[in-house]
Amino acid sequence: MVVVMAIVGLLAVLALPRGPGATSRSEAEQVALHMASLLKADRYAAMRSHATVTTVFDLDAREIRSGATSRRYVAPGDLDLLANASSHCRVSGRRVGIVFLADGRSCDARIVLGRLGAGFAVRVNGITGGVSVEQA
User: Fold this and answer.
1) Positions of E strands within the chain
2) To 10 degrees, the CA torsion angle through 82, 88, 93, 97?
3) Model confidence over 34-92: pLDDT tens digits?
4) At CA 112, angle to CA 109 and CA 77, rounded to 5?
5) In the 8-state DSSP scheme, what is residue 106?
6) Per-residue pLDDT tens for 26-44?
7) Nearest CA to 103 among 68, 129, 67, 132?
């Protein structure tokens, strides 16, 4: 009887992974797309201005800030965040500065966001500077 109750409880948890006010999968994808949009805008700003632009991702504040404009985006509190960056990025504690050079190149970086083991990654290609969103 206890085993049956445990199985029913487990199935209920799996069937209802989203609590009230929790970020859905499509909302998490929108967050990733917003972050990618901001990164792409900073890359284009670096190429237009022929100057280096650094986009800052702050894990503690859960935000990404443009280095070219006043744009910023804050991720919902229930998403897990992780940032991986190459040594060419500016890393200070839990802040990552993603550097875009005037020729469009960048440092290699990957920002992963999601919940319950499913999510999305925003990737910056270090050679081309291209920004993409992929399933994590």
Assistant:
1) 53-58, 63-65, 72-74, 80-85, 90-92, 95-100, 109-115, 118-124, 131-135
2) -70
3) 999 999 999 999 999 999 999 999 999 999 999 999 999 999 999 999 999 998 999 99
4) 130
5) B
6) 899 999 999 999 999 999 9
7) 129
The arrangement of secondary structure in 25-135, i.e. its CATH architecture, is 3-Layer(bab) Sandwich (3.55)
Nearest to 100 by CA among 92, 113, 109: 109
| Rounded CA separation 120/9 (Å) | 28
pTM of the model: 0.81
Tokens standing for residue 36: 């990618």
Among 44, 43, 33, residue whose Cα is nearest residue 107: 43
- The mean pLDDT of the chain is 86
85 in Cβ contact with 107 (< 8 Å): yes
Q: For residue 19, what are its two tokens?
A: 């609590």
